[in-house]
Design goal:
The protein is α+β, with helices and mostly antiparallel strands. It is built from 17 helices and 5 strands. A 5-stranded antiparallel sheet has the order 2-1-5-4-3, sandwiched between helices. The longest helix has 41 residues, at 266-306.
Length: 407
Amino acid sequence: MIQQERMKFMLERIHRAWQIQGCVCNVDGVILAMTADDEEKVLSVSPDAGLIKELYEKCRAGSLPVVAMEEDMIYYMAFLDEEERMYLIGPIAAEKLTFSQYHTYRRRHGITEQNYRIPYLLPTRALACLSMVYYMVTGRMVSEKELMRENKELEKIPDREHSFYQLQQDSEENRRFSYRNEKEWLARIENGALQEQKVQINAENMQKMERIGKLARNNSFKQYEYMAISQICLASRAAMRGGMNTFDAYTLSDMYYQKVSECTDVMELLNICLMVEQDFSEQVRLAKERNKKENYIEQCKDYIARHRTTKFSISQMAAELGVSRSYLSRHFSEQAGITLQDYVLQTRLEAAANMLRFSKEQIGTIAEYLCFPSQSYFTERFRKQYGMTPGEYRRENQIIDFHGTEI
């Protein structure tokens, strides 16, 4: 019991001095002590059985403390005492981790605590901690240089703050999205190109978003907050270029800005980042469809105006516009609020009214010129449209010249 208390006391001191977690376990992998605070609250997460077994075997194979490195430059330090209890110190990060790297680590080790954090510590400082703890437990002295030589994996990590920072910056430049990637992202929105499958939050997508650049120093929440705001701004402008109504684009972007301001954790911000592209792309797609329909309406009206003095069918007009007769008829009625047949008749009646006002052509000639099947049919339709016969309309509306005679 006294030995266990000593273990806890030592682990607490390690945590206070270096913010590193630790534990002690026996040959069967049973945890004997873990990092805790003064109120006996456990501060560390139990390492998984596979990790304990791997480190135990590595410790038995050598005579000095060992260092084990895993993905994202996360490492552990361990050694055995005389009774073959293993002292495990870690995890420790050799570089500052991103949110996605934390997410990947938690999934890899089955850690459910969302706020779990790994301390960042350069190996030279971490090895000083290991050297001291090893001496306290075993009474044997070993220097940091000896530990570095014994653990070749650590040689890959620069031991000076400046060179490490430079390496980190170079690495970030290599990982950063190119301008081409940004243009492709904007083009997808501008073209209303929706992705076939809904984008999910996973480690790969988080890493892609982090490659945009470093927008905040040592603050994952601010990094994603600034990233979300930038994406909303760029996406709204791309959507406007793609044909989305300016007012609607500003309204949608304002809605997303408000959502960002209400976020309380990184996952909420990530969801917004993933939703922005899909939402603005969908609005552009709908705008393009509306514009296309409206364009068909204008093309129809132009076709009818050019062919008002010739006989044609709706099928002929649809074929020239490259759509089916039923599609053209349906969408014209929906958008213009009048059937195609009635619009053709209305256009020819308006042309007839102008000819009655500005020419001396016979009513029968006007009816034939504008492709009415007979003069009686023309008179009937004209009376229904204008409330009078063509002759009555001419008498009331014909233009009078300066000499007081009818044109």
